[in-house]
Design a protein that fits this description.
This protein is an all-alpha fold and about 120 residues long. It is built from 4 helices and no strands.
């Protein structure tokens, strides 16, 4: 299973320009998830302070949380833009025939045929 995954990654790496590696993509995705949780947390706190506790809108605590929320949103947007640019580069650099449905099905049939031949040879 790992060999197949590594072969697919090697093929993808041949098509992809050296923009981001797999580790960097995973790191960005993780950071986006963390920022999303942080954003939700700050929204809950601001809602609690402003709407339920009737904290004045110019209170220092509320302003501090709003500033942190703005930073987290901007950072998350930046990460998303980087990942989007990476995905576009990957799609542009991939050969178009690999995206064709017919060639995909033919490749699947051929690989299944070879798997059956190998399985019959093992018996």
């Amino acid at each position: 299973m790992n060999k197949k995954r590594n072969q697919k990654n090697l093929k993808a790496e041949q098509w992809v320009p050296s923009f981001l590696n797999d580790r960097e993509v995973a790191l960005l995705q993780k950071q986006i998830r963390v920022n999303s949780l942080l954003i939700d947390y700050f929204i809950e706190i601001i809602d609690l302070l402003a709407n339920k506790e009737r904290c004045p809108k110019d209170a220092n605590t509320l302003l501090r949380f709003r500033k942190r929320l703005e930073i987290a949103i901007a950072e998350s947007d930046t990460f998303r833009k980087v990942l989007w640019k990476h995905i576009q580069l990957v799609e542009q650099s991939m050969p178009q025939d690999s995206l064709d449905a017919t060639s995909f099905l033919v490749d699947r049939i051929k690989s299944r045929k070879f798997a059956l031949i190998a399985q019959a040879a093992m018996k």
